[in-house]
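[Solved] Which block belongs to which protein?

Original post:
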Amino acid sequence: MADPSPYGVRAGAGTLRSGEGVALPHAWTDAGVLAAPASNGGQVLHLAVALCVLNDTYREAARLGVPLAGVAVTADGGFDDAWRSTGIHYGVELDTSGDPDQVARLHEVVDEVAEIPRALRAGADVRRSAP
């Protein structure tokens, strides 16, 4: 991945859980997930992608029979002068003893099914509602 911008984030669990960040409970791991940083809206948007991909990696690995000891997902991107996203890219690091073909299939499946990336790719209308 390219050098991180001020909006770059990381979410990790299992053996790839880092020592710092916001601790979040996680259905797939006993110790939960550490996500960081989360100090501005761009980072929170990117964390939504990273956390979704991390969660779906665990879910799909269990379904496909790919053993996982740890997962870390980085996500980053930029914004133009009107604060429109210029795109989000993510990377996945796995601690696995799985067969390389199984692992490649896992990455493909997660990229297809991860809900937050899918929603962002499709576009979303965001509006303020009345209280």
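(Second protein starts here: sequence line, then its structure tokens.)
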Amino acid sequence: MTDKGEGMYPSPAEQAANTEVFITSELYARVPRKVDYRREKAALQDLAARMAGCPDELLPRLVDLALETTGAVTGGLSLYDEASTPGAFRWRFLRGLLEPFDGGLAPRDYSPCGITLDQRAPVLAQNPEKVYDWLVEAGLSLPEVLLVPLYVGSDSPLGTLWVVADSNGYFDGEHARVLTEFASFVDIPLRMVRSEQHLRQTLDEQEMLTREMNHRIQNLFAMTHSLVRMSARHAGSASELADTLLGRLGALQRAHGRVRSGFASSQAAPSGSDLEDLIRDIMEPHEAKSGPARCALSGTPLVCGPRSATALALIFHELATNAAKYGALSTEVGRVAIDWREEGERLFLRWTENGGPRIEGSPERSGFGATLVLNSVTRQLGGSLRHDWRPSGLVLQMELPIAALAQ
């Protein structure tokens, strides 16, 4: 089966106006068949049993019972495929002569099924291949087709249930009534299945969020313990220890604030933080209250995951703290430029200081802050780090794997 391009076939209204093909009014002009209510009741009981015990068998059994109760020679379901472009119906659970076409597609706006959904009522079509050339291309000739709409709830179209007779003038109003009863009956279990699927998905997401939150809390406790222990080792006084710890914990807090919004959304994991926003948050306390900006940022948009955002927050906090103590941010005219670019699977990030005290060479020894930056880059993010102690100021270059930043 093939599909014409959108706009290349008659509108649904023009198709439905073809009284040679669409003969729904004849359904109620024909003498109705003798009703076998016992058989109809047994069919509904069968569907109820499937609903309770084997819900996955409900739709195929619906097709089987539709053929049994109407005496049609073939039939099936056309289920609306929302993912297709343009919209289309997928043939499912076909029985009889059309069974080889199971899984095929039919255009939403160029098919009897589309007309049925638009009219939200039974439709009778006679030799629809006279209008729909994709039926001709498939070698199909359908003397008479009776279709009824399938809905999940009142506004969510699922598709259509249809049966085919091997001669014209076969179907009548009682056939349409029985199929409508069947279609209405399965609406309830289909809604239950969808509700159950939605509930299961919600519970799975909540469980994943709980695991993720527990994991992050454990990481924060471990990192806080390490910060306290290492900061105490290098602090000269209680006041210095308090200031150092407050600064580092503040960086962690800002990083956590950047990613925690993902927990309030419907996503199964935190959405992450934009790299530029994260750096700007860390550098903001070092900006002058007035005058030109002291920190210039430039780079392509990049989203960092919770783990990498925490590491980056500590890295830039330490760099900013050192710059404020000894480097460019320790003078009124000093400036820091931070830029980054992506090349393949790597991110190249550069920190450049200018306007601070003249640098005579690399430091003779490194403190805990430098060790924290090195470990964060190499161990946590799997990257590399290079310092260039220029007379005009420190230039630090990081190379980081993009994959690690997504974590």
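Accepted answer:
You had them paired correctly. Confirming on the second one: Residues 1-6, 259-270 have pLDDT under 50 and may be disordered.
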